[in-house]
């Protein structure tokens, strides 16, 4: 049940690259978190330079304008080991699939509970 938002600086990625990013994120969610393959809910947002801010070197990570913010809201219950292996694998696979820098893969996981989700019709399907 993850909901994914990906934000990036406009004109940094082409449509086919965004599709690869989407597929790569989904593949890693299936592999690391056992998400069903058809549980696909992703939104991509491009931003003008005056709407996109980041530290180029916070925590000694050298970022570029190719930065991707990947915000994933999902059901709680994953272990620290699952999360850290997910971060590592996603950065690695995105860097290979798109020849992008691993430093530019910024991931945030937000845990929720079943009552926090409605998939349509005003009904909490997971309760």
From TrEMBL:
It comes from Cohnella cholangitidis. SUPFAM superfamilies: Tautomerase/MIF. Signal peptide: none annotated. InterPro entries: Tauto_MSAD, Tautomerase/MIF_sf. It comes from the Bacteria. This is Tautomerase family protein. Gene3D superfamilies: Macrophage Migration Inhibitory Factor.
